[in-house]
Specification:
The protein is of the alpha/beta class. About 55% of the residues lie in helices and about 10% in strands. The protein has 16 helices and nine strands.
Length: about 450
């Protein structure tokens, strides 16, 4: 019995010892595991901290590198040269007093006599229309048959006012603003400065008249590549007429682009005029109404008769402010005349006749242009009827292009009769000649 009891106690004691050993081993294992996890977590946190610090260091280094690049780089090499050109800022202008009529007469004579080997002959009506167009809109379309002097008259005017610029040939693949003013090359870290951008920058350095000739303006879609300019030139507030060249400013950028009020932007001043030459053939695009409505038009469909002149060619190097003063004076003087009332009456009557005859009309933009064009044309030496007739034929009746000729036959007859009855027989010959081509005999 005693032996059995001792044997049982011995077994219980062994079990207790085993449990104690197990608990001790478990506790040791837990301590080891805790220390391992604690050390691992410390390593992860440290590694993460080191990695974040490295990222911050890299970002800061990159930022410093970019900042240094902006401070050291000259990405506008052509424009920076202009900042140093004092001849662009110190320009002398003609101080003689003259009228718009004298200005037009001298310009016509200049075209015919300045280059004796290649004289240019234009009718006085075309010269008056050219100058009146400049006073009416910042955009002009010179169109007509090849060889009638579209580009030549623009280049001659540049010489006449003493500011010769190279024509800008439009490329068939042009589609967007970067084709016109250039773009920043990320690889070279240089700005691709176009000829147009350079001339626009120059125009901010003085008050010369800048006639920018866009040669073959419709060989690409002008409403695509020139869209931003079409909008900018419509803004009534000069402060709004700024073109974004870059969205940031670098330390060594040209002075005008670092202007605090318009950083990265280039103002388009009142002294900038765009003249586009257009050929209408199978190799070109049709110019949209959006462009035609904003632009003035000069149709050169035939060469003018030659004439002789004993007068020596005279240049008129005038400032844009002088030119504006001339044409604004003409508009102001006209506003208090009986012809101003007559113009209001004729505008109302012609609008109703065109609506009744062709179901087309014109709005405030056309009226505003007409009230500039007619007074200036008269001051250039033309008559009221000539100015009115010229504007309506090339700006309003142009909207008939593309209409069905057969459907217009009867409407044209009614239109001509109402024109003659309302304004007088043969008072608007250009309008009558223009619509007469729609009359088909048969």
């Amino acid at each position: 019995m005693l032996i059995v009891l001792l044997t049982g106690l011995s077994q219980i004691l062994m079990i207790v010892v085993a449990i104690i050993v197990f608990v001790i081993l478990a506790a040791i294992s837990c301590l080891i595991l805790y220390k391992y996890l604690k050390d691992s977590n410390t390593f992860v946190i440290k590694a993460s901290s080191d990695r974040n610090r490295n990222v911050l260091d890299f970002t800061e280094a990159l930022g410093n590198e970019q900042k240094k690049a902006k401070e050291d780089s000259e990405r506008f090499s052509k424009l920076l040269v202009l900042d140093e050109d004092n001849s662009l800022k110190n320009v002398g202008f003609l101080n003689d007093k003259f009228t718009l009529k004298e200005f037009c007469d001298e310009f016509r004579n200049f075209c015919a006599t300045a280059d004796k080997e290649k004289p240019l002959y234009y009718s006085i009506e075309d010269i008056r229309a050219f100058v009146s167009n400049l006073a009416t809109s910042k955009i002009m379309i010179l169109q007509g048959m090849s060889g009638t002097g579209k580009t030549s008259i623009a280049l001659a005017f540049q010489k006449f006012i003493g500011n010769v610029l190279e024509p800008i040939p439009i490329q068939p693949m042009w589609k967007e603003r970067s084709d016109v003013i250039g773009y920043f090359n990320e690889f070279t870290k240089k700005f691709n400065e176009t000829d147009l951008l350079v001339e626009l920058y120059k125009s901010n350095l003085n008050d010369k008249i800048y006639i920018i000739v866009l040669d073959e303006v419709n060989i690409a879609r002008i409403e695509y590549y020139f869209a931003e300019f079409l909008s900018l030139l419509e803004y009534p507030n000069e402060e709004q007429k700024t073109l974004e060249v870059t969205n940031d400013v670098w330390e060594k950028d040209p002075l005008i682009l670092k202007d605090k009020e318009h950083p990265g932007r280039l103002p388009i001043g009142d002294n900038v005029y765009f003249l586009g030459t257009a050929n209408n053939d199978e190799s070109t695009f049709a110019i949209s109404d959006k462009v035609y409505d904003r632009a003035m038009i000069l149709n050169l469909n035939q060469t003018a008769e030659e004439f002789t002149s004993d007068k020596a060619p005279k240049r008129y190097q005038i400032s844009n402010a002088q030119f504006i003063e001339l044409y604004k004076g003409a508009i102001s003087n006209f506003s208090s005349t009986e012809e101003a009332k007559k113009l209001d009456k004729w505008i109302e009557e012609i609008n109703q006749i065109i609506i009744d005859s062709f179901d087309i009309g014109f709005g405030n933009r056309m009226i505003s242009q007409m009230k500039k064009y007619v007074p200036v044309y008269i001051s250039c030496g033309g008559s009221f009827e000539e100015a009115f007739d010229d504007f309506i034929s090339k700006k309003i009746l142009r909207k008939l292009e593309g209409k069905d000729f057969l459907r217009l036959k009867d409407e044209v007859k009614v239109f001509i009769n109402r024109i003659n009855n309302t304004f007088g027989e043969k008072s608007l010959p250009k309008c009558i000649n223009y619509v007469s081509k729609f009359m088909i005999v048969g």
